[in-house]
Amino acid sequence: MTATLIWILAVLVVIGLYLSWTAGRLDRLHTRIDATRAALDAQLLRRASVAQELATSKVLDPAASIVLYEAAHAARQAEEEQREVAESELSQALRAVFADAQQLDGVRVAPGGEAAARELTEAVRRVPMARRFHNDAVGAARRLREHRKVRWFRLAGHAPFPLAFEMDDEPPAALVDRAS
Amino acid sequence: MRIGIVCPYSWDVPGGVQFHIRDLAEYFLGLGHEVSVLAPADDDTPLPPYVVSAGRAVPVPYNGSVARLNFGFLSAARVRRWLHDGAFDVVHIHEPTSPSLGLLTCWAASGPIVATFHTSNPRSRAMIAAYSILQAALEKISARIAVSEYARRTLVEHLGGDAVVIPNGVDVDFFARAEPNPAWQGETLGFIGRIDEPRKGLPVLMKALPRIFAERPDARLLVAGRGDEKEAVADLPGELRARVEFLGMVSDEDKARFLRSVDVYVAPNTGGESFGIILVEAMSAGAPVLASDLDAFAQVLDQGAAGELFANEDADALAEAAVRLLGDPGRRAELRERGSAHVRRFDWSTVGADILSVYETVTGGAAAVAAEEDRGPTGLRSRLGLARE
Lengths: 180, 389
Hints:
The structure holds two protein chains of two kinds. By secondary structure, chain A is an all-alpha fold. Chain A has helices at residues 2-55, 62-77, 83-97, 101-109, 113-145, 148-152, 173-176. Chain A has one domain (23-176). The longest helix of chain A has 54 residues, at 2-55. By secondary structure, chain B is α/β, with parallel strands linked by helices. Chain B folds into two domains: 2-169 and 348-383, Glycogen Phosphorylase B (Rossmann fold); 173-344, Rossmann fold, CATH 3.40.50. Chain B has helices at 16-30, 73-86, 101-108, 125-129, 131-138, 149-159, 172-176, 202-215, 229-232, 238-241, 252-261, 277-284, 295-300, 315-326, 329-342, 348-373, 380-383; strands spanning 2-6, 34-39, 51-53, 58-62, 65-69, 90-94, 113-117, 143-146, 164-165, 188-192, 220-224, 244-248, 264-267, 289-292, 308-310. The longest helix of chain B has 26 residues, at 348-373. Chain B starts with a strand and ends in a 6-residue tail after the last helix. Classes of the chains: A mainly alpha, B alpha/beta. Chain A binds chain B through residues 17, 20-21, 24-25, 27-29, 31-32, 34-40, 42-43, 122, 125-126, 128-130, 132-133, 135-137, 139-140, 143-144, 178-180, and chain B through 112, 136, 139-140, 142-144, 160-164, 341-342, 344-345, 350, 354, 357-358, 361-362, 364-366, 368-369, 372, 378-380, 383. Chain B: InterPro entries: Glyco_trans_4-like_N (IPR028098), Glycosyltransferase_grp1 (IPR050194).
């Protein structure tokens, strides 16, 4: 009788440890999501800032300036629900403005333009990177959260179900051409 | 930035991953970052000052061949001590799915981890069995890098998740500035690689040779690499053997001169390649490249725009393309020019900057979260008060 009790107790302890370990795993994933989301926010903000700076610098023609300013402003001001759309529109605006490489050459010859062009190149390259890392973390957390043990024992607690950040982040071709 | 890099394979054995890590570490050191590389090595091998030995790798049968791996208490302890002493801002693991130092580091590390996947192994049985263990360790990786679109696809299919593609780096100018060797010039085909490793494709090239030599009476083949030379030419008619020259293992300098000298570089590999660094090196040196149409090769050669492709394992197609290239100096000059322009994207200045971007993205996000909720390491060990910090 005592032997059986001890066995039951031992099994319960093992299950408990396993669940605690899984909860720790999930907690770590949620921290990772927070970190990747913060990184993505920082990169998006940086891209919008550089775009806005370029738009107000008078190195672009007035039409391009207005298009870019509108999009960058909207991206910075967007509410959480409209964020993905606004950022996608900024990507499209950037692609339209820098559709031909001459526009970029124009920026480069302006005073301080070389630095601005470099910053923009870096920003449009890092946004897709940060987004991929974020969505990778979201995917990993979702796969774990859909598991029975996590649902039955409510190991995720009150953490909201993680959502991927979906947007068009295709950079302008002129800015990513590394051959030159 | 304090960067810790983990190399899964023995430092004393030459290999693509080891060279990649060496060049990467030296690039970051040149920029003024602090770099430490943890690698398996015999305790008496001389190591560069930035390499820390993780002890000797043990040969173990794994995944169909004998791999030299590090595991066990001693290695795990060395990994933990290295992490603790280094206090790295970011830890960069290479080949995290091999049951060696990479995986051990994944278990022990708590800060931001970046991982590069080099090979595109089909999923092994061991990996299926260990899937849940592997998954728990791989979840700690904040950013994944694949060396080619092909490697990324394998990664996505086998492990889920996603990765950014950053190619392997090459010091383009080192190859571009090498001095050609007149002895290696004049209708020469070049091949570099293990002679006795069938996947490197020398047998395919040997099958194509009689036809190439028949149509181009002055052509020669130069082979650089280890292996049994007699066996390699065993199937070749006796009178043609004199036109195949074996150079044995060559130094980095001679490799660059070799690639500068040959008229066509042939890469007949039949499989198992996830990137093809040798093609990038050949293009850097201005050698026109003729390669089998493996996915990875086609991508490095810009789908055939920067070098010619032939149907994999098809000796006739190889012979036909080689004869055509040897007889057409105009086409060779064109390939040279396109190759040299295309290869700039693989230069360390570009590749290194991209990898640094990944580090900065990852550490930036982690710092933001740490500042927000400043809490200690989570997980079972800290819950039970066992964490070492």
